[in-house]
Design goal:
Keywords: Membrane, Transmembrane, Transmembrane helix. Helix content is about 85%, strand content about 0%. By secondary structure, it is mainly alpha-helical.
């Protein structure tokens, strides 16, 4: 018989993967919850190395989730203010346009704010594209991390 805690843990890990491509869904936190739900209540111990490694990967996912877009904006030359406003606008537009709202909000906000701060059209466009690439790259990194966490968890629990 399949253990209920195992089903819940795998469900949370799958939610983490799905959340990695959906804005405003805490993919790393879902993965972390799945790991620790099984570690605390599962019938088989995971072992300290497995718990530590999976936990670090999940925390890494949380960090990537929160800093990907703003770091890309900053690296492109945008100000901290621009990066912060773009993040807020993208989040708000998520509820208006769905996942597309984040991309449109971030690109549009960086572009417009860069123009108002004196950048020419080419520079504003370049900075907004770099920022969008950072947001999309962050989602891809989260997907790879949460997928690896899920795969490693299943291998550890089922195989070992």
């Amino acid at each position: 018989m399949v253990e209920v805690v195992l089903v819940v843990a795998v469900g949370l890990l799958v939610a983490g993967m799905v959340g990695s491509v959906l804005p405003a869904v805490p993919s790393g936190l879902f993965s972390l919850a799945g790991i620790w739900a099984y570690a605390l209540f599962g019938s088989e111990p995971l072992g300290p190395l497995a718990i530590g490694g999976l936990t670090l990967a999940a925390i890494g996912t949380v960090v990537v989730d929160h800093v990907g877009g703003p770091v890309a904006a900053k690296l492109s030359g945008s100000s901290n203010r621009t990066a912060l406003i773009a993040a807020v606008v993208g989040f708000v537009l998520l509820f208006v346009l769905g996942p597309l709202g984040i991309i449109v909000g971030v690109i549009g906000t960086v572009f417009l704010l860069e123009l108002t701060e004196g950048a020419d059209m080419e520079m504003a466009a370049r900075r907004s594209i770099y920022t969008a690439a950072g947001v999309l790259g962050s989602a891809l990194a989260q997907l790879l991390l949460t997928g690896t966490i899920l795969l490693a968890f299943v291998v550890i629990v089922v195989v070992f």
